[in-house]
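Example 5.3 — Alpha/beta fold hydrolase
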Amino acid sequence: MTSSDVAVKVRGGELTFRLHETGERGSEAVLFLHGSGPGATGLSNWERIITDLGPRFWCLAPDQIGFGDSSHPADAPRGMGPFNELRAEALLALVDGLGLEKVHLVGNSMGGQLALLMTLARPDLVGKILLMGSGGAPDMPVSPGLTHLREFYASPSAASLKGLLSEFVYDLDPMRGTIDRVVAERMAYVNREDVRRSHEASFDPDGARRSFTPEELATITHDVLCVHGRDDRIIPVDASRYFAAAIPNANLYVLGRCGHWTQIEHPETFERLLTGLIDGRI
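Solution (predicted structure tokens):
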């Protein structure tokens, strides 16, 4: 695995991605888009998956703009909708800068929204799409877990982060070690002022949000697999049912005994689903 800083031009300025890579350039490219949350990074979402799949694909897992060691704009757009528009533009610039003519997209939660924004803007650039517990479905209830995530900085602490991440999984007991490790990794970011500033911009209560209409989704002709944990306490499984019903070439796979962290709770199943999608077996 390698990590490097890659600069892109967006809206007349420059932003920098911290990009984590496995595999060989020239292999089929897969862009892994992480979700939101305090201290989230590309590796905290995807390290196991991109390590396992590196022998097969060129795996790209950036820290999104406003997360981790990527740029944190001082004048970031307020609200998840406008900020995600900027993130999607930056991701498209990243893909172009890497010289890719086609890339498969894997989006977790907020990352699913980014995958959809990228696809709507540049459908020619996108191959297959896996949406995992994706946000962006309209009229979904705001879960207590999502409220905790949005309001985390009202009282930030390692204990609060551990409580939040415990809501991401179905069965806490086998995941305690993983959660403790992720908490330790993320707290180094949580305590940074630039990370807090980006979080508060994303979740500004007065900022705009973005959902996707059936009419928009009907224009997406790509093969899409919607994956969701049946027991997700952050984003309800009905969100993926909505996407699967509205996108013409979409299928839905619901995992039992699984929460919001499909790729971490059931990594082998997740890898089989992703490779099956790319290979045309699903």
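Remark. The chain has a mean pLDDT of 97.
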